[in-house]
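comment on this one:
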Amino acid sequence: MKRTALLTIGTLSTMLLASSAAMAYQAGDVYVRGGYAKSDIETHNVSDEGGATLAGGYLFHDKFGIELSTSEEIEHDFGLAGQELGTVDRLPVNLLLNYYPLGGLDSRVQPYMGLGVNYTHFSNVDTSAGDIDIDSDYGVTGQLGVDLMVNDYLSVSGFAQYADIDAEAERNGNDLGTVKLNPVTIGGGITYRF
């Protein structure tokens, strides 16, 4: 699923590069993006789940901008050694530097790629297997995406994002170890550019 989604976005971007319209991305643009995304978690001990997403960004150059994105708290089922233990809420926050290769050019298609830092907060651990605590984590994140312009202000957007998340867990004060979540998130939505 991970490779297929990334290849699909890359192929779609390449096929549509020839489209033309007077819709250049440029320095000073501000945007908000809302949509839905689903995460494919690396470990089989944590369920794949999805939720609503929200992002905002600013282009400080025709080809470069910063973006802050998050989602609603997403509830995951989790377990250890093949046993279901309960549920936990995950809240990701990403700060990215995005590169727009067609920034400054008139194009109906605006692909982008970004690199940055992810902060993931875990809360509301609900389990009958003792007092389990999961530490928040920082890690590297990257994304590929494309905006398909409907008009000068509105676009339909799609993205794929990877985050390096290692969740350290304790039960009743005893170390349970680290679980590598490393989600690949596929999402889409609507972007409004000011």
Summary: The mean pLDDT is 87.
